[in-house]
Design brief:
It comes from Microbacterium esteraromaticum. The protein has 4 domains: 94 residues, Trypsin-like serine proteases (Thrombin, subunit H, Beta Barrel); 81 residues, Phage tail protein beta-alpha-beta fold; 72 residues, no CATH class; 64 residues. It has 339 residues and is mainly beta. It is built from 5 helices and 21 strands. Strands 1, 2, 3, 4, 5, 6, 7, 13, 14, 18, 19, 20 and 21 form a 13-stranded mixed beta sheet that branches.
Length: 339
């Protein structure tokens, strides 16, 4: 089965200009826990007519009759490389579209009133950056108190504060370049995107590793919200009291507590959910799986099932994927095991 990459040159509004020929190398990394979502590099010959300041590029992977967009990027820091034979190539950095709201900052103190619908406010702020390709899940959640940010705060930071208050994922951008605003889903409630099973038709390499960091892993998390003279702050509490967990209070005989103050949350349910999510994040080093597998159409935070040669079934969420722009590339992946 034939595999290959293609690269689509776009204008500043993601409208296709044409195919970008002459790509000779590069790589991309997709990172779930990064606010910017990752980065990359591209090597392209010097005969291309590219406006580095405004053009964009969408990387497609083709596997037989299946094709999918892996990432949509802006160009940054092109380096011209000249050979003695008069051949010029460009080695250019790739930035995700998350850099657009990250680099756009409010010019003055920015406030949103209590009672404002959260998701429309986040969408409006995102589209104010000039980005219009947004897929959002509606919600009737409203702010329980006014929020204010100082001048110079990035619009991405404000958007993510709002999404946190509504119990949503942080803003992210899919491979096609569309921004996504979606409710957070606990790993136990996500659908399995792919099953990696040991055997003749396995799509992963047999060598893999599982890292554990046992030091200072908390078993309780306190999320403390914002309050005022009339309304005490909401407090979300998450505990690891699973007797089968080696890090629970039952196993350790004591509480190890992590806290965060000033949490934006619209309701008790949302701040409880946030506390549980943060506790899970802080337990991240407990079970991190590194594995290499074939190119597949996967997204950050997708849930996968992993059954290696030991026959033990493990569930994990995708945290990092790194790949090269070569036809026979594999994905070097980092997963967080769901405990």
């Amino acid at each position: 089965m034939t595999t290959r990459w293609s690269f689509e040159l776009l204008d500043s509004e993601d409208r296709p200009i044409g195919e970008l020929d002459g790509v000779t190398g590069g790589r991309a990394e997709i990172v779930a826990q990064s606010a910017l979502g990752g980065s990359g590099r591209l090597v392209v010959d010097g005969r291309q007519n590219i406006d580095w300041a405004s053009n964009r590029v969408r990387a497609w992977f083709h596997d037989g009759d299946r094709s999918w967009p892996v990432g949509t990027y802006m160009f940054a820091s092109p380096t011209d490389q000249h050979s003695g034979l008069g051949v010029t190539t460009h080695d250019v950095g790739l930035l995700t579209k998350m850099n657009v709201p990250a680099e756009d900052k409010v010019e003055a103190r920015f406030s949103i009133a209590a009672g404002t619908e959260i998701i429309p406010a986040a969408v409006d702020l995102l589209t104010s950056t000039g980005e219009t390709r947004v897929a959002s899940t509606s919600s009737d959640a409203t702010l329980t108190a006014a929020l204010t940010w100082p001048a110079g705060t990035s619009k991405l930071g404000i958007i993510n504060d709002l999404l946190q208050a509504a119990g949503y994922w942080s803003l992210w951008c899919d491979g096609s370049g569309q921004f996504r605003i979606e409710p957070y889903v606990d790993p136990q409630n996500r659908s399995i995107t792919h099953r990696f099973a040991h055997g003749e038709e396995s799509l992963h390499f047999p060598d893999w590793s599982r890292e554990q960091n046992l030091a200072d892993v908390p078993n309780r998390f306190l999320a403390i919200g914002r309050g005022d003279e009339e309304n005490p702050p909401l407090i979300g509490i998450a505990k690891n009291d699973d007797p089968t967990s080696p890090f629970s209070r039952q196993a350790r005989g004591r509480w190890i507590t992590a806290t965060e103050e000033g949490v934006e949350a619209e309701s008790q349910q949302i701040i409880d959910q946030y506390a549980a999510r943060k506790l899970r994040d802080l337990m991240d080093p407990v079970a991190r799986i590194s594995v290499s597998h074939a190119m597949l159409d996967l997204n950050p935070n997708d849930l996968v099932e992993f059954i290696p040669e030991d026959g033990v079934t493990r569930l994990a969420t995708i945290q990092r994927m790194s790949m090269s722009f070569t036809p026979f590339t594999d994905i070097d992946a980092e997963w967080r095991q769901v405990l």
